[in-house]
Every structure is written in C-alpha cells, then in structure tokens.
Amino acid sequence: MVTKLAIRNLVHDRARFLVTLVGILFAVVLLAVQLGLYLGARKMIVDTIDHAGGDIWIAAYGSNSFEQATILHGRERFAALSVPGVTAVEPIVASFAPWTRSDTSTTSVVIVGADGTLPPWNVVEGAVSAISPDGVAVDRTYADTLGISGIGSVAEINGQRLRVDALTDGIRSFTTSPYIFMSLAKARELLSVPSDQATFYLVTVQPGVDISGVKRALEKKLPGTSIFTKAEFRQTNLDYWLFGTGAGVALLGGAVLGLIIGTVVVAQTLYSSTKDHLAEFATLRALGSSSFYIHKVILTQATASAFLGYGLGIAVSFAVARASLHTPMPIMLTPQLAAMLLVVTVVMCAVSALSSIFKVTKIDPAMVFAR
C-alpha cells in the first residue's frame, strides 16, 4: 500500500517527476565524471612509480614529484650499496625536454631513461627488447601531439634524431607532457647527464629485511637527500600534484557541487509534491494513519526516484567514461565507484525528503473537515 501510494504521488504530475529524474541524473553524471577524473588523475600520477622496481627511492633533497626532481651527484649509489640488506641500486633519469616533430614544431615531453628498472608497459606495437640505442617507446594516445604515425616515425630531442620503436596503450601523463621511454644511456646523452649520475636511485632490499630499517640506515648514510619508501613516494607525488597544485581540490569540489545541486533539485520537487497532496495526507491522518506511515510514503517516493535517476545517470556516465578511454584525460568509472554512487544517490534523496517530512509533521487532521 505504501509503495502504491508513493508511486501514484510521483506519477501524478509527470512533468515534475521528469524534472526530478533529470536532476538526479545530472547529479549522478557530474559526481561520476568528477570522481572518475580524480581516480584517473591519481592513476596517471603514480603509474610510473607503481611499475618501477625497487623498494626505496633516493632523490635529491626536497624532491616531491617524479617529473621535477633534480640530478643526484652519483656517490649515492655506492653509499647505498654499502648498507646491509641492500641487494641492488638501479639508476633512473627523468626530466622534461622539448620534442621536435618532423614539421619542426615542438612540444614538451618527459624523458624516462632506465635499463630494466622502469620499462614501458602495455606495449601494443613493437617490443621492449626491440628498442634500439636511438629508439624510444611512446604511448599511441599522444600520436597526434608528437606528430608520429606509428613504428618507424622519427623526431628530435635537443637536436638528436630518435626513432619510434614501440607503442604503448594507456600510459598517460598528468602533466600532459607524454612520457618518452628509452635506454638509460640515451637519456643521459640527451639531457647531458654524466654517466655516473641519475635523477633517482631505486634500492632493492633483500627479502625478509625490514625496509624501514634500511631506509633509516640510508638516511644516516646520505644526508642532504630525500629517501622514500615506495608508498611514501607515491603519496608525496599525489599530495604535490593533486593538492599542491589545487587540481584535486577542483575535481573534488565539482563532485560536491553536483551533490548539492542534486539534493536541492530533489528536495524542491518532493516538497512541492508533498504540498500538493497535503489534503490527502490529512485525510490519511484523520482515518487513523500514523505519522510514521506518511513518512514511509515520502521516503518511498524519494527512494524510487533515487533508483530510477541513478539507473539513467550511471548509464550515461559509463558511456561518457567509455568515450574518454583513449583521450589524455580518461575517466575511471570502476564498479566500486558505481556502487558508492548508488549509496550516495539514495542518501541524497533521503536527505532531500526531510523538508517534506517536516511539512507533513505539522498537518492537522481537522483541516480535511474544513474544506
């Protein structure tokens, strides 16, 4: 009976009901896109760190991002190798550089030079083992930006000719400057880095040895550098790019805005619907229905609106996310995020129903006899 009455109230004014669904749809899509962009940004920021080997990162003092660290002196590698529990110390060179296309225009890229420690992943054309001394691997998402047509395309960095030997799929850069993977020696040559220096040293700790203990030993051995565990370096990069630059705040702010807009639209619609049916609710009270029964009717209206609006909104959101898959800024709409959005939508509509519940609480059953 409660569900039947709630559905009748909703569809009694179909135009208003449609406005409610559009409001919820808009809120769900805005939330999904903003939170999906946030998750996509997080993935782009930490992808290189997650795919790198090693347990501890040694960087120049004050380094807070993979792309902007300065060059280390070189003595750090041998000092780290002398620490008990360390089995390997591998160098990585990473830095921004200008990429000159075949039409002589330039664009900014991030050079990533490593020998086995950080190879390109998701290779869809060519192979990592087939990358020549002057060869590079790039992501096909940036083919137009880099002015390449595929394997065999050529370009220049700092006046030196390079050949595309491998293409990857899904390696995006949060800075919008594409990652260019190459050998360590080639990266050093392009950036004029001496052969005994690097941007990072990745320390591999012997299995069973306490990583935190090795980190403390490295900090004593290498004053004037920044030592991070892998998890710490991930978080440092996330904090810098998402909150240090304000990008993450903007994305989360958009999601909160969508939530507020959806709540207001649904609240306004439910309140108007309740106001139009005050006489009917007063009749129910006069016939002996409890306030709890009427509250259930209003909450059922809100819940039904939530499920219908969510269904439409999440369908549109998945379509938008799918369309963004091959763009430089993909939207990550995961099953966990979709489930969370369902809960948020139901809660949003339930909160929206509070104003209506407050209204019917004040109904005087005698008003039905005064009409």
Report on this structure.
By secondary structure, the protein is of the alpha+beta class. Helices cover 52% and strands 18% of the residues. Strands 1, 2, 3, 4, 5, 6, 7, 8, 9 and 10 form a 10-stranded mixed β-sheet that branches. Helix 2 packs antiparallel against helix 8, helix 2 packs across helix 10 and helix 10 runs antiparallel to helix 12.
Gyration radius, to the nearest Å? 29 Å
* Number of H- or I-type helical stretches: 12
The percentage of residues in β strands lies in 15-25%
Query: Count of DSSP E strands?
Result: 10
> First CA to last CA: what distance?
26 Å
Residue ranges: pLDDT <50 for 5 or more in a row?
none
* Global morphology: elongated
Taking the sheet with the most strands, its summary is: 10 strands, mixed
Write down the overall mean pLDDT.
86
The helix-strand sequence is HHEHEEEEHEEEHEHEHHHHHH
The proportion of residues forming helix, as a percent range, comes to 40-55%
> Structural class from helices and strands?
alpha+beta
